[in-house]
Here is the input.
Amino acid sequence: MTSPLSRAVVRAVDPGLLALYRDLHAHPELSGREGGTASCLAEALAAAGCAVHRGIGGHGLAGVLENAGGPTLLVRADMDALPILEETGLPYASHATGIDPSGNEVPVMHACGHDLHMAALVGLARTMRSLRDRWRGRIVLVGQPSEERVSGAAAMVRDGLYDRVGRPDWAMAFHVAPEHPEGRVLFTEGVASAGAESVDVVVRGVGGHAAHPDQTCDPVLLAAQTVVALQGLVSRELDPQEFGVLTVASVHGGTKHNAIPDEVRLGINIRFFDDAVRDRLLSGIGRVAVGQARSAGVPPDLDPVVSLIDESALPLRNDPGLVCRVREAVLAVLGHDRVGGLGPSSGSEDFGAFAEVDPPVPLCYFRVGTGSGRLHSPTFAPDPGSVLTAAVTALGAAALDLLRPPD
Here is the structure.
């Protein structure tokens, strides 16, 4: 016999919701430019019975379902897409373009599942509206901009999200996970995803003609030596039991084959679970860069310039008690074969910013398998029906448990 929740999810994940998903997929927008996406999501949430607040922290929005008195649950979906040329061949594939931060026109695609996240948010609103006799309180359904730039959540909180909709008692979100079986729901206790910082290092020297390198202080060679030396920060300065990643992801310098430039720019990204590791890696980057410059004879007035980029993310820390409660609620509906555990991810995300108030908001961030593909791939094309059914069921089970009326 099916449960009331299962029947409500079947009604919610109908052809109309799948059409919404296809529309969102076909019309993606880049971070900070999600105006059309926000309008589409706001309209769908309003049709599902939500009072919608717009323009929070940019294009952010919040749909509120009120049902008498009770606690408040926030559920977040991210809205932005990626500068990727879609190669799925789907009939609703994106042909959209957008303008990136450098002013270039680029192709745009939902290659990270944010279209599924938004459709699930609407599916949850429909489900909970049809089950109003089984819960009490407030559900705040957040459409968040600029997740890919790990800045949208903090922008919404700074712009008074909680002044408009109330401080939540709990906050939940999920992310699709193509490396796990389709429809499987996976929970992580403690740190769910890594913190991240991006660092620019300008390696400076004295340029000149390639025929006379002896008359230069070659920043290309110095940059190469710096890239290699930086790897020792993780392999030789971190405890092997601690998690840390340091990646030099971009190296830019010079314009001609026969001209040694005056500087080379390094783009560095670090990942960490613990703030102490973050601090050691950041201080180490500056120390290594300056040390390499000194060993190459670069004068002090040409020391490397090290700067943090405004694209940082805190480690996302799940509340163990909340995770345990949500997992048990989802287990009761989906069963042990469709619910599992998962270790922390080295990926980063800014959902943790919704907890950054006093006192902190307990978080539960989980994953839903899609069974195939890779995130940020031009061919990422999960089956929306099965994923949405699993995601809406998990979110609905959690909401019904957390907002259960008193006996």
The first strand starts at residue 51 and ends at 56. The CA atoms of residues 230 and 236 lie 10 Å apart. The longest helix spans residues 275-295. The two ends are 25 Å apart (CA to CA).
